[in-house]
Design goal:
- This protein is α+β, with helices and mostly antiparallel strands.
- The chain is 32% helix and 13% strand.
- It is built from 11 helices and 17 strands.
- The strands form 6 sheets. Strands 10-13-2-1-17 form a 5-stranded mixed β-sheet, sandwiched between helices. It has a 3-stranded antiparallel β-sheet with strand order 3-6-7, with helices on one face. A 3-stranded antiparallel β-sheet has the order 12-11-16.
């Protein structure tokens, strides 16, 4: 959408992984397809006009064990999957999701190219656009592609000789796994080295691909009042593209469907940069601020956390990069809840994910209960995908290590993009 408004999709590396919904156990694909078509009919006011489509799907499932969504069904299903995502606070703009149909794409290299193009299109010169790229669905006789990375852009973590960590500790194992696959870090390692994409496909097995620097849009962090903050050398990328969740629509599972909105500032400032098992910047910020850290009751962590978050919001705003604060997004979410209620729909929400990790009780989302029923379509995270996202996984069909120039992916073909 031209205004750049979208969803600050919740970072899959924060909060509690067990909160992710699981794929429904219902084995009857036809029943799930019928349920989805009922929803499609109802919300498009088709009044039972899909009888021929139902017969076609029934025949297709009987013959192959699955079926293929039409473009309209895919677009509707992807948007409703976002609408039903109980962990996302930014669902007010679910209808604006740009759906890119790459179901005909085959091979790890081609999937990687489309992921690169996804980042380019979603970044939009800093005015981030909510976008999903949908690749081939799983079928009974053939799995679809899978992306190992939790997000399309993540930073490497390296163990240092003194027992510390350079970079993001969350991805220590993942970094070592991709090095075993042949990836080589920069000659001069840093705290924000972008990891390669790792993709499995039935055609090519497991391969890795360097992301071109041109599609990794980052913001260097400064503080509006503390000049020394820039000396910390902090920065963060602008597009939070979740890559390892499966989108389930009417019994059909799309295991590779990277999607993004934009960041809420606390995801970066209160989690990625502040958590003790991530970049753990609070002690250094507090030291530079001259705070008394001798006791918890001085609230030095709280004071440092506020300034770290101020720096994130200030820096993104100064760079012209889309971001939102937790107070504004909380108000927007309650607007979404009211709209869903007016439409006669439930609005599932996980309180522990919806309430921001900074000043939670100061936001209106804190002071109420929410529906917890899982609705479908939806995004799910299985145990294997969660493991691959942080630790890597088994190499299905090893190939020679990529040459550095192979990471500079040439773009070809045009996707089907539905506005």
């Amino acid at each position: 959408m031209s205004s750049g408004e979208g969803c600050p999709v919740v970072d899959s590396s924060v909060w509690r992984q067990p909160a992710a919904p699981r794929r429904p156990e219902q084995p009857d694909v036809l029943a799930q397809a019928e349920e989805f078509l009922d929803l499609f009919e109802k919300e498009h006011d088709l009044a039972g006009t899909l009888q021929s489509r139902r017969r076609w799907i029934r025949a297709e499932i009987e013959a192959t064990g699955t079926y293929v969504h039409t473009t309209a069904e895919l677009v509707f299903g992807a948007r409703v999957a976002w609408r039903n995502s109980a962990r996302c606070i930014g669902r007010l703009y679910w209808k604006s999701l740009r759906v890119r149909d790459f179901r005909a794409v085959r091979g790890s290299a081609a999937v990687a190219e489309r992921c690169v193009d996804h980042l380019r299109a979603a970044t939009n010169d800093g005015r981030v656009r909510p976008t999903i790229s949908v690749f081939a669905a799983d079928a009974p006789d053939r799995p679809g592609p899978r992306i190992w990375n939790e997000q399309l852009i993540r930073y490497a973590g390296y163990r240092t000789e003194d027992g510390g960590v350079l970079g993001d500790p969350r991805y220590l194992d993942f970094t070592e796994t991709v090095q075993a696959l042949g990836w080589r870090p920069p000659a001069e390692r840093g705290a924000f080295d972008v990891l390669p994409l790792v993709i499995d496909s039935p055609e090519e097995g497991t391969r890795w691909f360097e992301l071109p620097r041109s599609v990794v849009h980052e913001v260097e962090l400064h503080h509006p009042e503390l000049p020394w903050f820039a000396e910390l050398g902090l920065r963060w990328h602008t597009v939070p593209a979740i890559a390892n969740m499966t989108m389930v629509i009417g019994g059909v599972a799309y295991s590779a469907a990277p999607f993004n909105g934009w960041y809420m500032g606390t995801e970066i400032g209160a989690r990625n940069l502040a958590d003790h098992d991530r970049y753990a910047m609070l002690p250094e910020v507090a030291r530079r601020m001259g705070l008394d850290t001798s006791a918890e009751q001085t609230l030095w962590k709280d004071r440092a956390l506020v300034e770290l978050n101020r720096a994130v919001l200030h820096s993104f705003d100064r760079a012209g990069a889309t971001i939102t604060d937790h107070h504004t997004e909380s108000e927007r979410f309650l607007t979404h809840v009211r709209r869903e209620e007016k439409a006669g729909r439930g609005c599932p929400a996980d309180w522990s994910w919806i309430v921001p990790p900074l000043s939670g009780s100061l936001t209106p989302v804190f002071h109420r209960y929410y529906d917890t029923e899982e609705l479908w379509p939806n995004f799910v995270l299985d145990d294997d995908a969660a493991r691959r996202g942080t630790r890597g996984g088994r190499v299905l069909a090893p190939l020679p290590a990529e040459r550095p120039e192979d990471g500079l992916l040439s773009m070809f073909g045009l996707p089907l993009v539905v506005p």
